[in-house]
Design a protein that fits this description.
Elements (H helix, E strand, L loop, with lengths): L1 H7 L26 H32 L10 H42 L5 H17 L9 H14 L7 H12 L7 H5 L3 E4 L2 E4 L5 H14 L17 H23 L14 E2 L5 E2 L8
Antiparallel strand pairs: 1-2, 3-4
C-alpha cells in the first residue's frame, strides 16, 4: 500500500534558482569631452579675446579723438596740465592691455593647434600638463633665445592643472579662468590662484586659504562652546537635559562644516565671551546681596 501511495505522488518540480543580489553599481562618471567639443570651447575663448581686443582698439581711437578737444589757451593751467597727463596715461594703459590680449591670442592659437594635431586618447589633463611643459622647454632652448618669458606662464598653468583642478572639472573652463586671473605677460603663481578658489558650505561661500589642522580643530571647538554644545546642557539641578544630546547632535553637524569654512577668517579671532549681569541681587528687605560668582581672570 505504501508503495502504491508513493507511486501516485506527482514528481517534485525543480526549484528555481534563488535571485542573486544585484552587484553595487559604480557611480556614473561624467563623459569626457570629445576633441570636437574641446576645440569648440577653446575657440569660444579665442573669439571672446578677439572681441575684447577690438574693443580696446576702439577705445584707443576714441582717446586719440578726445585729444582734439584739448585747449591749452583756456586760461586754466591746472586743468591743462591734468588733461595733458590723462591722455598719455589712458593710452599707455590701453596699449599694455592690447599687448596682453595679443599674447593671449597667440597662446590660444598654440593650444588649439596642439589639441587638434596631437591629442588622441590620453586624458585631457595629462595631455595639457605635458604639452605646456613642452612649450616652455621649446622657448627656453630656442636659438636664438626667446625675448619673452612665456615659459613662466606655461609652467605655472601646467602646475595649476595638475595640482588645483578637480577630477571632474571642465578643464577648458579652468584654463580660461586661470588665463583671466594670471595673464601671460606677467603671470601669477598658482598659489595665488588657489586662494581665489571658493569653497561652499550651504548658502555661505568663502575664498579658500591654506590652514593648519589645529586651526580647524580650535575653530570647531569655539563654535561648539559658543552654542553650548561642547560640555552638554544641564538643567537647574545639574542633571542633563533630555534634549541635550539630540540638540548637540543636530547643531554639531552644521557647526563643524561652518567652522572649517570659517577657519580662514575666525581662526585668529578671540573666543566669544559670555555675558554676565552686573546688577547686584537683593534680599527681601531690599538690601544688596553679595554676588556668589567671581569674575575669572
Amino acid at each position: 500500500m505504501a508503495a502504491v501511495w508513493l507511486a501516485t505522488l506527482p514528481a517534485r518540480a525543480e526549484l528555481a534558482p534563488l535571485p542573486q543580489p544585484a552587484s553595487p553599481r559604480a557611480p556614473a562618471k561624467a563623459a569626457a569631452p570629445s576633441k570636437a567639443q574641446t576645440l569648440e570651447s577653446l575657440k569660444q575663448i579665442q573669439r571672446k579675446q578677439i572681441q575684447t581686443l577690438e574693443n580696446v582698439d576702439q577705445s584707443i581711437r576714441r582717446t586719440l579723438s578726445d585729444s582734439q578737444s584739448v585747449n591749452l589757451r583756456g586760461g586754466d593751467p591746472l586743468n591743462d596740465e591734468k588733461q595733458m597727463q590723462a591722455i598719455p596715461q589712458r593710452l599707455s594703459s590701453l596699449q599694455a592691455r592690447r599687448e596682453e590680449l595679443l599674447l593671449r591670442r597667440d597662446f590660444l592659437d598654440q593650444i588649439i593647434f596642439q589639441v587638434d594635431s596631437k591629442w588622441t586618447t590620453q586624458p585631457l589633463a595629462v595631455f595639457l600638463e605635458q604639452t605646456l611643459l613642452d612649450m616652455a622647454a621649446a622657448e627656453l632652448t630656442s636659438n636664438p633665445p626667446a625675448k619673452t618669458d612665456f615659459w613662466r606662464f606655461y609652467t605655472y598653468l601646467s602646475i595649476a592643472i595638475r595640482e588645483i583642478s578637480e577630477p571632474r572639472e571642465d578643464l577648458i573652463a579652468f584654463l580660461s579662468g586661470y588665463l583671466e586671473f594670471s595673464g601671460v605677460q606677467k603671470p601669477k603663481s598658482p598659489l595665488a590662484y588657489l586662494e581665489t578658489r571658493n569653497y561652499t558650505a550651504g548658502s555661505m561661500s568663502q575664498a579658500a586659504r591654506p590652514g593648519r589642522r589645529d586651526e580647524v580643530g580650535s575653530g570647531v571647538e569655539r563654535r561648539l562652546r559658543a552654542l553650548g554644545l561642547k560640555d552638554g546642557t544641564t538643567d537647574a539641578t545639574g542633571a542633563s537635559s533630555p534634549g541635550a544630546t539630540n540638540g548637540a547632535a543636530d547643531g554639531a553637524s552644521g557647526v563643524i562644516s561652518d567652522a572649517i569654512i570659517g577657519t580662514a577668517s575666525s581662526a585668529t579671532s578671540p573666543a566669544p565671551q559670555s555675558k554676565t549681569s552686573t546688577k547686584p541681587a537683593t534680599t527681601p528687605g531690599g538690601r544688596s546681596k553679595p554676588s556668589a560668582t567671581k569674575k575669572r581672570n
